Model the fold of this input.
Amino acid sequence: MAANRWRIGDVTVSRVVEIEAVGGLGRFLPAATRDAVLEIPWLQPHFANEEGRLKASIHALIIETPDARIVVDTCIGNDKQRGVPAWHMMQTAFLDDFAAAGFAPDAIDAVLCTHLHVDHVGWNTRLVDGRWVPTFPNARYLMGADEFRFWEGRGDDPNFGPVFSDSVKPVFDAGLVDLVATDHQVAPGVTLVPTPGHTPGHVSVLIASKGEEAFITGDILHHPCQLAHPEWGAIVDEDPGRAERTRRDIFERFSETPTLVIGTHFAAPTAGRLVRDGDAYRLDV
Done:
């Protein structure tokens, strides 16, 4: 199984990385101290280093079906003023890497945002002659209706307001946004799964083709360590209790099944099967 491309029946999922790093995720998962992480030996070497520092990734996933090309989440983006210093005014080769993986922005049919946080909407737009323009001009941008309204109503939030202004509103104003239900069918074999908690309208993605399945997590969890400890929440979860219930429900649903679980923030190899591990779970890669 290639780290950057997976086959599910007639569907292919490819991963294009914006950032993969060690150590940056720890501040979002306060319970995942180095000592606690070292007590989960299966995390090494892929998801943690020998010091117990977490490895994580920010990447887009491109779903290719016989009918459509769909980008799931669009990372952070270039040229954007952000409160996280490492993400501020970034300059990466993401679009070049996107093209090198065989994808042209104008050949994308749909862009799906699992939710509207900063690291999932950034490449919705790019800066051209001082204006934010849609990166994928021929795509429909699919956003959960409840999710959109929640963040639209918090436009004065100092952290989120700029994100909505430069990465969400421009594509909405361009008439490219479809506000959808949390169980919307994106394309034959590609369906949204409501997974609230991290944000009110958060969705994950279920792919089914020729008897095979894959599940793209979104941010129901940020790191595989949360399989071992579903109670470990992220400080950016809007409703921590509901987020934990969602994690437990999803882990129970897909554990000990052939479904391939593809983590939206999992470092390479990024995907595997969920198996039971005592009272919790682990990722079998």
